[in-house]
From TrEMBL:
InterPro entries: KdpA. This is Potassium-transporting ATPase A subunit domain protein. One of its GO terms (molecular function) is P-type potassium transmembrane transporter activity. It comes from Leptospira interrogans serovar Pyrogenes str. L0374. GO terms for cellular component: plasma membrane. Signal peptide: none annotated. The chain crosses the membrane at residues 49-67. It holds the Pfam family KdpA. Keywords: Cell membrane, Ion transport, Membrane, Potassium, Potassium transport, Transmembrane, Transmembrane helix, Transport.
Length: 144
């Protein structure tokens, strides 16, 4: 889990850093020294943008029914008397950064179509909105 979470954060922040360097390069008349520091942008993008947004977004997702637990699975008895294993896990926290960074994939392997990952129309709207919030905010990026 820690490996995928790290890659989800780093891939989203790398895209933001490239956009920052591109916009700085276009706006400062080709001054090489005005492009900024990639690592500084990477740390700031992760700590000040993605971590708070994904934390708040994960709280909203948990509130609307997305599973968030460290239990692996739950056993349930079906109507026929068989035992069924229901997978669980830290889904809300993974979905939050997955959608904010538009990384794709899904915790249960079927992207956002699993009922534990997308249980309600409101959670579906929040996930669609989170895909667009960072690119939409980058349109208004300006540095003085």
């Amino acid at each position: 889990m820690a490996g995928l979470t790290t890659q989800n954060f780093l891939s989203a922040t790398t895209g933001l850093c490239v956009l920052l360097a591109l916009s700085r390069g276009i706006s400062v008349n080709y001054n090489v020294f005005a492009l900024g520091n990639f690592w500084k942008d990477m740390i700031r993008g992760t700590l000040y943008v993605l971590l708070p947004l994904s934390f708040i977004f994960a709280l909203f997702l948990v509130g609307f029914g997305v599973v968030q637990t460290f239990s692996e699975s739950v056993s349930a008895i079906t109507l026929e008397g068989n035992t069924q294993i229901i997978p669980l896990g830290p889904v809300a926290s993974q979905v939050a950064i997955k959608q904010l960074g538009t990384n794709g994939g899904g915790y249960f392997g079927v992207n956002a179509s699993h009922p534990f990952e997308n249980p309600s129309p409101i959670s579906n709207f929040l996930q669609m909105f989170s895909i667009l919030i960072l690119p939409g905010a980058c349109v208004f990026y300006t540095e003085e």
